[in-house]
Design brief:
By secondary structure, this protein is mainly beta. The chain has one helix and five strands. Strands 1, 2, 3, 4 and 5 form a five-stranded antiparallel beta sheet that branches. The protein starts with 6 loop residues before the first strand and ends in a 20-residue tail after the last strand.
């Protein structure tokens, strides 16, 4: 599965302003501090875990585009990573 570039929905509460927004995955912020923006590197480091954060851009419906501003929610707060929730 290609994670980077995927569009999903934010379902968490930590970033209340994102709740229900469609977001695009830009990068993975691994628990060890590494910042991954490459599919091959992400596969090499074991993909996404429940301990990671995901850099996302929210979809701005009124402007029909993704925001240039990003947020870093927990992976488990994105609909596409529901399987990682404990």
């Amino acid at each position: 599965m290609s994670i980077l570039g995927t569009t999903t929905t934010y379902v968490g509460s930590e970033h209340g302003y994102l709740r229900g927004y469609r977001v695009r995955i830009v990068a993975v912020l691994k628990a060890d501090g590494s910042y991954v923006k490459d599919h091959d590197e992400l596969a090499r480091v074991g993909g996404v875990t429940a301990d990671d954060r995901i850099e996302v851009q929210p979809w701005l419906e009124a402007e029909s585009r993704f925001s240039f501003v990003t947020s870093d929610p927990r992976a488990v707060d994105l609909e596409c990573f529901a399987h990682l929730r404990r």
